[in-house]
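User: Let's play a game. I give you a shape written as tokens, and you guess the letters that built it. Ready? Here's round one.
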């Protein structure tokens, strides 16, 4: 699936993140841990920001000048209603040129939707867009090897890809990052996250 198709799929299910059953604390503790590693707090970016703005609020409260990016037009429309003072960009991270250097970038439950063939390019682009000492947190499928699949668990068909745990770690080290934290925080599910510092 192409990223624009992912965006259209998410356009159909935005209400999931407004339901009483959605856990607004999802990912917050992990982001607090990542923020603690930061040396400077200028610009921050939330890739795949969605509609809730929970990470945008957390980063703003921590002193960052934060912006959001998403491939779903409807998600962004709802995000803008909630946070009219924030800059939001409708774009595909695979082709979008990041305009600034950032002290913090998050891609929580988002870049696992990009094509497997683009994973290395996108991770490289993100790390290149970090200032020295900048922090990158992202979640991924902690598989043993790289691969991709689709499923309809949320309703519409959605694509997922992963370089695998060792693949992401190796790439980040190759790009000059230090791994500050890696956790399978929903074990035995494969949901995994990394905090890396440039």
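Assistant: Ready! My guess for every position:
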């Amino acid at each position: 699936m192409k990223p624009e198709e992912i965006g259209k799929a998410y356009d159909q299910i935005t209400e999931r993140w407004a339901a009483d059953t959605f856990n607004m604390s999802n990912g917050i503790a992990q982001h607090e841990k990542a923020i603690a590693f930061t040396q400077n707090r200028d610009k921050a970016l939330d890739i795949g920001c969605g509609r809730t703005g929970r990470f945008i609020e957390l980063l703003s409260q921590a002193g960052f000048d934060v912006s959001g990016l998403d491939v779903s037009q409807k998600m962004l429309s709802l995000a803008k209603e909630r946070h009219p003072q924030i800059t939001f960009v409708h774009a595909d991270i695979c082709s979008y040129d990041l305009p600034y250097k950032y002290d913090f970038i998050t891609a929580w439950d988002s870049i696992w939707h990009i094509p497997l063939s683009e994973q290395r390019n996108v991770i490289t682009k993100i790390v290149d867009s970090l200032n020295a000492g900048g922090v990158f947190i992202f979640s991924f499928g902690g598989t043993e090897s790289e691969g991709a699949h689709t499923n309809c668990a949320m309703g519409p068909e959605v694509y997922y890809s992963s370089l695998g745990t060792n693949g992401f770690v190796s790439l980040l080290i190759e790009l000059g990052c230090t791994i500050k934290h890696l956790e399978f925080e929903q074990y035995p599910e494969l949901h995994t996250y990394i905090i890396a510092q440039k």
